Amino acid sequence: MSQHEQQPLDFDVVVVGAGPVGENVADRAHKAGLTVAIVEKHLVGGECSFYACSPSKALLRPIHATRASQRVQGSEGARLDPQGVLARRDAWINRLDDSGQVGWLDHVGITLLRGEGVLTGPRALEVDGRPVTARHAVVLATGTTPTVPPVPGLREAKPWTNREATTSRRIPDRLAVLGGGVVACELAQVYAALGSTVTVVEQAPGLLGRNEEFAGTAVKEALERDGVDVRVGTAAESVSRLGPTGEVTVHLEGGGTVVADELLVAVGRTPATKGLGVESVSGRLTDAGYVSVNARMEVEGVEGDRPWLYAVGDVNGIALLTHMGKYQARACGDLVGARAAGREPDADRTTPWADDLGAPQVVFTDPEVAAAGLTEAEAREHGLRIRVVDLPMDSAAGSGLQAEGYQGQARIVVDEDAGVLVGATFVGQDVAELVHAATVAIVGKVPLATLWHAVPSYPTMSEIWLRLLEEYGL
Question: Where is the Pyridine nucleotide-disulphide oxidoreductase dimerisation domain (predicted)?
Fold first, then answer.
């Protein structure tokens, strides 16, 4: 019997992609009593676990802890150990061994299919040529891959992406970074702290362009204090490399060069939809190549008597953040489970409507940038009548206890007609834990008059909430 004549493997649900998003939707569907297979061609745990969120934060945390100690009188003696930092990173990614995640799948009863999944028809796939069918649903959770732009010579220079930068066991003497977003800023700070001479090249006029402008300014100043050469408003015209592993030269538009031992490209992400077969079942892709979905994560354009194809996480392009993808996955898994059981789905539980409110996010640089909801510019683009309130973070008594000479800024964006918060941004040491309160207020549409009664504990940095509301006039 040839490979294509094999009897198909049959499951209730097949999930393509075993990153955190795929794992979440598979787990949710399995808990609904369905048989589930998950398809993965690389590591179970995906980009976030091995090449992005986990290793980058494992690298950054010792830097944060050391600097936090140095900023408190009486404990200024902390020093960074580069090899210890790398060892901690290795432990967090289990040295690129996914046996722990595979063991979890086995334990809960989800079947792992190793290989590349391709849609071949309604509720049908092939995994490395082996036919697989799904009685109820196929869920796409293939995520994204690093974008390498078509700069002459760039691909030939074999640059680092986030994968190489978060897993390297070598600290280059000189590192050039193309890009000015989250990955570029975080990893530039990591390598500068570990001993590299770092140059950042960003064609936009500032860093962290999707955040409030003051956040990008604060991170740029911090990188420069770390010795990073930050060049904004500058683009790479071409790239060349001496031999397979020699030095890399980035030729800049308008003249000038940056010479480094390694080049990190961190200019965005590309949806992992090539060869997935979405169009073969009439599914739609956006102009940027993301899978087009409706509010319930159903792939648009797919024909059939009932929905069966879904896409969650980065692959649909709604919010390229692991936590938002997992949120979509939980809703999708519950939806698939309800439909399979013949129940009317709970609309509130199976529609991830908070996507439209602005995703919470933390940039784990020093200072941290924590934001939720809309920026001032986005709120104005939405046509809202807003008021913006800004305060220095040292308005909260707790900030001075956190660090001597604490530096930072807070902003809230208020919808004046609704009397609710629609955006918040905090910049400073240890502000990451402030963002969830903002998220709750925004998603819950908590009136500011009610929020005033949410009394912050003294003396904590959360007191900034009280000061912001007082500045607003409450």
Answer: 360-465
In the chain, where the domains are located: 3-45+98-146+271-354, 155-267, 367-472
| H runs (alpha helix) in 129-236 | 162-167, 182-194, 213-225
pLDDT tens-place string over residues 400-452: 999 999 999 999 999 999 999 999 999 999 999 999 999 999 999 999 999 99
Pairing of the two strands 262-265 and 174-178? parallel
Residue-wise DSSP of 264-302: EE-S-EEES-TTS-TGGGT--B-TTSPBPB-TT-BBTT-
Buried b / exposed e across 370-401, counting CB within 10 Å, b at 16+?
A: bbbbbbbebbeeeebebeebebbbbbbebbee
Q: Which CATH number fits domain 367-472: 3.20.20.70, 3.40.50.620, 2.60.300.12, 3.30.390.30?
A: 3.30.390.30
The pLDDT tens digits for 22-63 are: 999 999 999 999 999 999 999 999 999 999 999 999 999 999
CATH 3.50.50.60 correct for 3-45+98-146+271-354: yes
CA distances from 54 to 18, 91, 134, 225, 429 (A): 16, 10, 32, 26, 20
Fold match between domain 155-267 and domain 367-472: no
Q: Are 123 and 138 in contact (CB under 8 A)?
A: yes
Handedness of CA 118, 48, 144, 355 (dihedral sign): positive
Q: Which fold has domain 155-267?
A: FAD/NAD(P)-binding domain (3.50.50)
| Peptide bond before residue 459 is cis, with ω within 30 degrees of 0 | yes
Cβ atoms of 265 and 148 within 8 Å: the answer is yes
Q: Give residue for tokens 């955040």.
A: 211
For 281-295, give one letter per residue: b (16+ CB within 10 A) or e. bebebeeeebbbbee
State which amino acid sits at residue 345: P
